[in-house]
């Protein structure tokens, strides 16, 4: 089949993965990024088995494992020591594990691979809008234009301006709770092996995620990403109170953080993140297709954002590779097939995130009490434990059933 002209907006996980795969299939790919120098946004992240399978297809899993940190499970406790979560991946499937990785490390792996493809990178380009979505053209802020493209992939994140202007019927509610992140050395490995959380009703949530090493320094110490959940409306006040006050609050909730917090010397080490609950009636307007957080962003409670982005890229490029001919109808059918593959997965996780988030981040304090009473026992009962693990590991196909697991502890995907 003839190669397609594919445009990609956004140099994040979804955009870079889609560009790498599409260029590898022989398509003519151009990626646009508004920053003159592409860079990762955020701190550490947790790659579940689904995201690791996608990285394996990209040829990047070994590199990610060399930089990252194996995560065997998740533990969450209240301030008084009550078990809220105690889950181990291998209980669901032998060999299954998460992978904590610095966002910068994942970005560098993707970017180095992208640079090795024929993809054209146009950096420092501000996109003003999309024209002629049947064969999309990009309108630039400086009055120029790019395109037309056979397919345009819009991967500009949860706060996408292009989605607001061009997506079909959609909602993108800003979550009232955000997060402060900091990544610091953990040379003693005190937090190795598990994602740990400390919660107090629904108003306090802290976490520590081992994320391995930053790229470019093989001798660098292993690191841990610390996160502190707080209302978006309180972020300015938190900064105004000062770093010492924030660190004192965190130590009071979780004394074990005293050591890592000593390595946070400035607010400049902290990233402030906000999130949106994104819902689209369809992922495409003509052949402009929204992927990643631009299509289905959620709160970070389930830790699925990067995994979903990688799977979107994999599904789209697989569908285009398998399309039935070169005509416009074949391209449209391929795009619809990719969305049909992905929607049960993304819709289910979006709804689960909506349901679970208030139990951890909200003003509804009694929900935290109910969580503390119920979730620990749920982790001990095989039916509920396996359900929770299938959600944590990202391997539920939808509301019912899950991806079959292979011998390597990762799922078999239909695309």
Report mean pLDDT, rounded to a whole number. Answer: 95
Spatially, the strands of the biggest sheet line up as: 6-5-15-16-17-14-18
Helix tally equals 13
Radius of gyration: 21 Å
| Cα distance spanning the termini | 19 Å
Question: How large a portion of the residues is in β-strands, by DSSP E?
Answer: 25-35%
The multimeric state of the shown protein is single chain
Which term fits the overall shape? globular
Largest sheet: 7 strands, mixed
Helix content estimate: 25-40%
- The low-confidence runs, each spanning 5 or more residues with pLDDT under 50, are none
Q: Tell me how many strands there are.
A: 21
* Structural class by helix and strand composition: alpha+beta
Brief characterization of the structure:
With 415 residues, the protein is α+β, with helices and mostly antiparallel strands. 35% of the residues lie in helices and 26% in strands.
């Amino acid at each position: 089949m003839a190669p397609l002209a594919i445009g990609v907006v956004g140099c994040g996980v979804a955009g870079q993965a889609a560009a790498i795969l599409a260029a590898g299939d022989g398509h003519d790919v151009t990626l646009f990024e508004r920053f003159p120098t592409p860079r990762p946004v955020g701190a550490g992240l947790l790659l579940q088995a689904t995201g690791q399978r996608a990285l394996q297809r990209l040829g990047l899993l070994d590199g990610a494992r060399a930089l990252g940190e194996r995560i065997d499970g998740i533990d969450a406790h209240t301030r008084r020591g009550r078990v809220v979560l105690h889950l181990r991946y291998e209980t669901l499937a032998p060999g299954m594990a998460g992978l904590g990785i610095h966002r910068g490390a994942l970005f560098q792996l993707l970017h180095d691979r992208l640079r090795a493809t024929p993809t054209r990178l146009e950096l420092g380009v501000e996109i003003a809008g999309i024209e002629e979505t049947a064969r999309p053209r990009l309108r630039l802020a400086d009055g120029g234009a790019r395109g037309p493209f056979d397919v345009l992939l819009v991967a500009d994140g949860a706060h996408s301006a292009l989605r607001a202007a061009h997506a079909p019927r959609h909602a993108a509610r800003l979550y009232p709770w955000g997060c402060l992140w900091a990544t610091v050395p953990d040379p003693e490995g005190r937090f190795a092996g598990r994602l740990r959380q400390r919660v107090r009703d629904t108003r306090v949530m802290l976490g520590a995620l081992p994320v391995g090493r930053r790229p470019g320094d093989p001798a660098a110490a292993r690191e841990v990403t610390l996160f502190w959940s707080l209302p978006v409306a309180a972020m300015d006040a938190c900064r105004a109170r000062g770093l010492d006050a924030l660190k004192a609050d965190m130590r009071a909730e979780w004394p074990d953080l005293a050591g890592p917090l000593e390595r946070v010397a400035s607010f400049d080490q902290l990233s402030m993140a906000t999130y949106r609950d994104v819902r689209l009636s369809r992922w495409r307007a003509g052949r402009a297709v929204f992927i990643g957080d631009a299509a289905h962003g959620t709160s970070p409670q389930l830790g699925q954002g990067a995994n979903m982005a990688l799977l979107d890229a994999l599904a789209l490029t697989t569908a285009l590779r398998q399309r039935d001919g070169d005509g416009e109808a074949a391209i449209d059918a391929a795009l619809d097939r990719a969305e049909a593959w992905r929607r049960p997965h993304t819709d289910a996780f979006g709804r689960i995130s909506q349901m679970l988030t208030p139990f951890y981040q909200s003003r509804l304090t009694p929900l935290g009490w109910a969580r503390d009473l119920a979730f620990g026992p749920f982790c001990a009962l095989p039916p509920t434990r396996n359900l929770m693990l299938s959600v944590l590991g990202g391997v539920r196909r939808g509301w019912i059933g899950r991806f079959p697991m292979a011998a390597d502890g990762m799922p078999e995907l239909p695309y």
